[in-house]
Amino acid sequence: MIADIEVFRSALKSLYLGLSDGARTNELRRASNHEINNEQIWQAYELGEQKSGAMLVDLKKSLEKAGHETTSPHFNLVWLLDDFSGSGNTYIRYDSKEKTYGGKLQKVYNQLHKLKLIDPSHYEVFLVLYVATRQAIDHIEYWSERFTSEHGFKPLQLRVMCPLERDLALTENPSSSIEALLAKEKYFDASVNDDHMKVGGSDGRLGFAGCALPVVLSHNTPNNTVYLLWGPEQYAYPGLFPRVVRHKDF
Description:
Elements: H1 2-12, E1 14-18, H2 25-31, E2 41-42, H3 48-65, E3 77-85, E4 93-95, E5 100-102, H4 104-114, E6 124-133, H5 134-151, E7 156-164, H6 176-183, H7 195-199, H8 227-230
Parallel strand pairs: 1-2, 1-3, 3-6, 6-7
Antiparallel strand pairs: 4-5
């Protein structure tokens, strides 16, 4: 009986945050069979004081309605949701020159503590990726462990529903015809190598961070795929499944 009560309370004290529009938080809420309340889920990870304050007020009301008195409500379980990761750099990265961390995970952890959404001594953070490459998984696990341990945060727990192994990359044992196709200058526009692409440390021909994936998603093509697939329409040579670019240099 006590265990059932704790499970119920954990369900009420779970916070769900989308890390991009690909997280499909609206579909998750509808698929939960009413087990996820509106005040527990948000389509973005940058909340602000007003939104986070409203969430804590609603959490207190939900707990009291369920018969659990609390004077200082906090979320115990934080679920970070996203559809795809090819390199992992978007979530966590380290600037060796500045000796600082960047990325979505760094922002989320800092917000959780600053906005007092969690009890610093009792919380867990899960990153749930619907699809991720082995390169991204290894990167996120290594750098998130360093980041959380150095800052005294609870460790990140990574869950990947559909992992893509390294042998999926087109650079793994490529045929001569694939190599020739990727090397053709007429099928590439070097203008794609903007400041955002340079963060990945590779030429856009093979995609961000050189992932060289043959992956296309329903709502957008990851820039971790080869340029032949994701090249945006505004460039001289668009890809077969042009990507809607989210980062632009002005």
